[in-house]
Write a structure and sequence with these properties.
mainly alpha, two-stranded antiparallel ribbon, 7 helices, 2 strands, elongated
Length: about 150
């Protein structure tokens, strides 16, 4: 920091610099598996983008697209909290991660997706897409890491 910054100004700039260097990744982490060994990341990707046998049910993209205004407002409130010394950059990023995780889980539960096929309904006993045991929804998580890393 250059001359002329107060200690409070230096603190704010340090925290804002941390925000520039870090990011939050929301979704599924490599290695997560269903009890039968099936990769959660694979199942999430198949549902998000669809396959030859299954329509796309974009719960990740919809959670962002349908909540853009809420997300922007929440992120702005986190920056204000950093400036007002109510939290650190790391604390703000954890709250952003938890907020986004909740939006993804809400979209899985309440999203307006193409219904399951009759065969799938017979197999799992439900017409609600994306939810069978709740394992995928409950496995949504976030990590904080360095940008570019």
């Amino acid at each position: 920091m250059g001359d002329g910054w107060t200690s409070e100004g230096q603190r704010i700039m340090r925290e804002l610099d941390k925000l520039q260097d870090l990011l939050v990744k929301v979704g599924f982490q490599e290695g997560q598996k269903y009890p039968d060994g099936t990769s959660l990341t694979d199942v999430a990707a198949w549902n998000e983008f669809g396959t030859v046998n299954m329509p796309s049910r974009p719960f990740m993209r919809d959670s962002v697209d349908e909540n853009e205004e809420k997300i922007v407002e929440f992120m702005q409130s986190q920056v204000v909290d950093i400036i007002k010394n109510r939290k650190t950059a790391e604390q703000a990023l954890k709250e952003i991660g938890a907020f986004q995780k909740g939006l993804v889980q809400e979209t899985i539960t309440e999203g307006n997706f193409e219904p399951n096929s009759p065969e799938t309904i017979r197999k799992k006993g439900s017409s609600h897409p994306l939810i069978d045991t709740g394992e995928m929804r409950n496995s949504v998580n976030f990590v904080i890491g360095k940008k570019g890393g």
